[in-house]
């Protein structure tokens, strides 16, 4: 499985470490909240809301340099809209990987 990284953030920041720190701070605050809302919706089979949650989360997936994981999130979001949970396990593994990565920062 691919691993989160700072490549995209560093390319956006142009070396501005304060900008990088601010962006990471925002991600560390928002990601757990958005993840919790996603799990709440998926646990009660509210697939439409879960799809909206995945939509928000996939932007953080992209920012953390997870290109293949982003593609998985796009397909999973569409699956949820169609009422299918196909790729749920893969998506939730991505969330776990990001959670561990953010704890290390």
Rg computed from alpha carbons, rounded to a whole number of angstroms:
14 Å
Number of beta-strand segments = 0
Average pLDDT, all residues: 97
One letter per element, helices H and strands E, the order comes to HHHHH
How many domains comprise the coordinates? 1
Uncertain runs: none
Q: Pairing-aware structural class of the strands and helices?
A: mainly alpha
Share of residues in helices: over 70%
Report the major sheet. Answer: none
Estimate the global geometry from the Cα principal axes.
Answer: elongated
What is the oligomer described by this structure?
Answer: single chain
Strand content: under 5%
Distance between the termini: 19 Å
Number of separate helices: 5
Protein name: Hpt domain-containing protein
Please provide a written account of the structure.
The protein has five helices and no strands. The protein is mainly alpha-helical and 105 residues long. It has one domain (7-104). Helix 2 runs antiparallel to helix 3 (47-63) and helix 4 (67-81) packs across helix 5.
Overview in brief:
With 105 residues, the protein is mainly α. The protein has helices at residues 7-13, 17-43, 47-63, 67-81, 88-104.
């Amino acid at each position: 499985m691919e691993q989160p990284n700072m490549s995209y953030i560093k390319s956006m920041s142009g070396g501005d470490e304060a900008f990088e720190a601010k962006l990471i701070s925002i991600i560390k605050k928002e990601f757990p909240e958005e993840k919790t809302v996603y799990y709440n919706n998926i646990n009660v089979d509210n697939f439409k809301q879960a799809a909206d949650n995945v939509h928000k989360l996939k932007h953080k997936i992209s920012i953390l340099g997870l290109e293949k994981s982003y593609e998985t999130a796009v397909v999973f979001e569409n699956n949820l809209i169609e009422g299918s949970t196909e790729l749920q396990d893969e998506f939730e593994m991505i969330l776990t990987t990001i959670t561990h990565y953010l704890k290390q920062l």
